[in-house]
Design goal:
397 residues, alpha+beta, Immunoglobulin-like, 4-stranded mixed β-sheet, 4-stranded antiparallel β-sheet, 17 helices, 10 strands, 60% helix
Length: 397
């Protein structure tokens, strides 16, 4: 070795140094690359990707291109990283404890559509306690079904740690499903005493009180609804990011005719879960309509449409609300207020075979004949044809 060094020229030593330096420089950074799929299942342009090193202060951010792709090749070697996908100023997904490898790019992809499906399934599992209607079941993807099963197993595992809690919780669930709401209240109250940190227990206790309130009148009903709001607040305190609890809390407040507080609750649910904001406003409108608060219901349906113009059932219910303001002329013709026809037509465009398709067509057919629509019920079409034939006959005579 000494002999070799003694024979190296200064130039050769320099070359050797440069070669090693280049090799070292080539290995001094990591590369992270990936793709973002939006909640609409399309590549998302403009999503902000934040990369933060966890052991020292270092971070960077970049945006996805029109294909939803991003690449950062200057990430320092060593340590672990947190990669965040941000959309509209909101963190949509986080991949933590990332450890890039030398020599090859690390792929970190974000599928926000899949994440939303999972979140929807989690909300459904928590809100329903696993009781899913046939209509809901048909709309679930295999991914959502698996997530519901996972959530329920996790909740069951937590509760099963305490046999007494498990037994009394199951008793409450059976009573709630059977409509024996007082028994359900008693069981869930006992469950909350056995373990006061189970949000799902308080969520079902609140649901049971709402059911009980529906079976009572007067002061007893008011007391049941008040207890329901207390239980929902406890569930929200334990799990503040669960929009289902906040939504149900708002519904209970509507039943108590506390409209400003209810609106605030639905607004909060919409903020927690923006993609489903239209659903929360629609729920508010439906409860208001059912309790005879028509004007407030109309405002709620308008909010639902503003949040999502393609929320078909909100379009239909807003049309129904407007029909209540229609004018009937001396000739018996119905003249609906502005926006009525558009609401029914939009519903039919979105759900031409939906559950309210025929009523929407009948409504359109019943309006002033100067309003033209392609959606005519068979009965209305036959009446129009008969009238036209009669008019032609009168002209001939």
């Amino acid at each position: 070795m000494a002999k070799f060094i003694s024979k190296c020229t200064p130039f050769a030593a320099c070359v050797i140094f440069v070669v090693f330096a280049c090799a070292s420089f080539a290995q001094s950074t990591y590369t992270i690359t990936g793709r973002v799929i939006g909640e609409d299942e399309k590549p998302l342009e403009g999503a902000v990707i934040r990369i933060e090193r966890k052991d020292i202060k270092w971070d960077t951010k970049l945006k996805t291109n029109r294909r939803g792709e991003y690449t950062h090749a200057g990430i320092p070697v060593g340590g672990t990283y947190k990669v965040t996908c941000e959309v509209g100023g909101e963190d949509k997904d986080i991949i933590d404890n990332v450890k890039p490898r030398l020599g090859e790019p690390l792929s970190i992809n974000f599928d926000l559509a899949a994440k939303k499906r999972v979140a929807d399934a989690q909300r459904l599992a928590i809100a329903s306690g696993g009781v899913v209607s046939p209509e809901q079941a048909r709309q679930l993807t295999s991914e959502q079904r698996a997530e519901i099963e996972k959530v329920l197993k996790e909740k069951s595992a937590e509760i099963a740690k305490n046999k007494a809690l498990n037994d009394v919780f199951n008793t409450g669930m059976e009573a709630e499903k059977a409509g024996r709401f007082q028994d359900a209240v008693d069981a869930f109250t006992k469950a909350s005493e056995l373990d006061p940190k189970q949000d799902i227990v308080y969520g079902h206790l609140a649901d049971a009180y709402v059911g009980l309130g529906g079976q009572k009148t007067g002061a007893e009903q008011e007391a049941a609804y008040a207890k329901a709001t207390e239980a929902y607040q406890k569930a929200i305190e334990l799990k503040p990011a669960e929009s289902a609890y906040v939504n149900n809390f708002g519904t209970a407040l509507v039943r108590m005719k506390k409209l400003p507080e209810a609106l605030a609750a639905f607004e909060k649910a919409a903020q927690i879960d923006p993609p489903n904001a239209a659903k929360y406003y629609y729920n508010l409108g439906a409860v208001l309509m059912n309790t005879g608060q028509t004007e407030n219901a109309g405002d709620a349906f308008k909010k639902a449409i503003a949040a999502n113009p393609k929320y078909a059932v909100a379009q239909y219910q807003y049309g129904i609300y407007l029909v209540g303001k229609a004018q009937i002329g001396a000739d018996g013709k119905i003249t609906p207020p502005a926006g009525t026809v558009e609401a029914f037509r939009t519903y039919l465009e979105l759900e031409p075979s939906g559950p309210f398709a025929q009523p929407a067509k009948d409504m359109l057919a019943s309006f002033d004949t100067s309003i033209q629509t392609q959606y005519l019920s068979p009965e209305a079409k036959k009446r129009a044809e008969d009238a036209a034939k009669k008019k032609q006959q009168q002209k001939k005579n």
